[in-house]
Amino acid sequence: MLTTEDPANGRVPVDASWYCSPTSRRPVMARTLAKSTLKRLRALLESEQERLSRLIEEYEQELEEARLTETSSDRSPDPGSAEAGSLKFEYEKELSLERNAVDLLRKVEDALRRIDNGTYGVCEVCGGPIPVARLEVLPYAATCVNCARKA
Predict the structure, then answer these.
(1) Burial category of 3 from C-beta neighbours within 10 Å (exposed 0-12, middle 13-18, buried 19 and up)
(2) In the chain, what's the furthest Cα-to-Cα distance?
(3) Mean pLDDT rounded to a whole number for the chain
(4) pTM greater than 0.85 (yes/no)
(5) How far is CA 19 from CA 6, 40, 58, 129, in A?
């Protein structure tokens, strides 16, 4: 649920159709995207969610295989050898790729929640609209271009 800071009452709930801009402290009407645009962007996000979930599953399997290979006595190279360094590098690379995919999946799921809440397309920092062109390229974007540059 969206809340805003009220000097007299502290944090108070705000109707999902309104969004309080943190910079101006005044409510602004939430972004209303055309139903067809919202439907297209939701489909894009859901497709990305499925792709990332499969990718994360593959990374987890590869990491488990690498971990098992590393601990296997017949495959475990001398810790100081070049082969050991190469295996460690590959393991760390896979781990980094998995973390990135998990982070992207979280952003996609947050965007789907914003669609459900009626706040999709509204910058989380300034409360302004996020251009449709930005959402088409980066459908999980939570900030407008100006606020993203400042971050």
Answers:
(1) exposed
(2) 70
(3) 78
(4) no
(5) 14, 23, 39, 11
**C-alpha torsion sign, points 58, 63, 68, 73:** positive
User: Structural domains in the chain?
Assistant: 3-53+99-150 (1.20.120)
Q: Rounded distance, CA 27 to CA 21, Å?
A: 6
Neighbours of 128 (CB within 10 A): 19
Give CA–CA dist 105/92, Å, rounded.
20
Check: CB of residue 31 under 8 Å from CB of residue 42: no
* Average of per-residue pLDDT across 50-68: 87
Compare 69 and 142 and report the one with higher pLDDT.
142
* Residue 61: alpha-carbon gap to chain centroid: 22
Instruction: Give the pLDDT score at 92.
Output: 82
